[in-house]
Model the fold of this input.
Amino acid sequence: MASVIAFCNQKGGVGKTTTVVNTASYLASLGKKVLVVDLDPQANATSGFGVPKENIKAGLYECLSGSVHPKEAVLGTNTENCFILPSSPDLAGAAVELISVAQREFKLFELLQMVSDDYDFILIDCPPSLGILTINGLVAAQKIIIPVQCEYYALEGLSQLLRTILLVKEHISPHVDVMGVVLTMHDKRNKLSQEVAEEVRKNFPGYVFQAVIPRSVSLAEAPSYGKPIMHYKWWSQGAQAYKDLAIAILALHGN
Ligand SMILES: Nc1ncnc2c1ncn2[C@@H]1O[C@H](COP(=O)(O)OP(=O)(O)OP(=O)(O)O)[C@@H](O)[C@H]1O
Ligand SMILES: [Mg+2]
Done:
C-alpha cells in the first residue's frame, strides 16, 4: 500500500504544485515508485510534467464520475518511476456534481484504493480552496504537508486549515496527521522572509522541515519547459532544497 501525502493550503500561489512536482520527481529518483494526483482543475501539476494534452484520454474527472478506471487514466511522465493521474478544467464540474453524491468525501479515497498497491508514494496536489475536492484530498491522505510561502499574510488562513484537518480527523479519517510545514519562496537576503520563517517555526514547533525552498527563478522557469527542476537545473539551490525535502520525507517514513 502506498503512503498517501496531500499537499494542502487553501491560499493560492504558495508553491503547492511546485512542491508536489519536484518532491515527486526526487522521490522517484531515490528509487520509489510515485503517483502524482492532480486534484486541481487548473491542472498545473499535469502541465508541470510536460504531459501533452493529446496524451490525456481521461483524467481525474472521468475517474471520479466512474466512467474510467484510474489505472486507465494514469500516464507516465518524463521522470522514470513517476506517474500522474492528470487533471483538466473539467474537474471543476466534479466539485459541483459531488455535492449531491452520498459519501462524497470518500470518492478520491475509494479511487486511490484501486491503485494504491502499485506505488510507494501517492502525492496529491490540492487546489487553492477548502472545498469538496480538497476535503477528498485530506480524506484520501494519511499525511498532510502544508507549503507556506515566506511572505506577509503567510499565517493567515492556517488556523482555518488546521481546524478543517481536525474536523476531518475527528469525523471521517482518524489516522490523518500533519507531516510537516515546508517554507517556500524564501529569500535569505530579505528581512521579512526571515521573520515569517521564524514566526512559522514558532507556531509549528518541531513541524517545519529543515529543507527551506529558496525563491528561485529556475524553479519558476522549469514548468514552462514541462520539466521538474531535476531535469532542468539539477545543480541549482532550488533543486538541492527539493532533493533534501524528499530525503526528509523518506526519513520520516522510516526509509
Ligand atoms: N521557490 C520558488 N521560487 C520562485 N518561484 C516559485 C517558487 N515556487 C513556486 N514559484 C512560482 O510561483 C507561482 C505559484 O507556485 P505554485 O503554482 O507552485 O503554487 P500553488 O500553491 O500550487 O498555486 P495554486 O494555489 O494556484 O495552485 C508559480 O508561478 C511558480 O512557478
Ligand atoms: Mg497549484
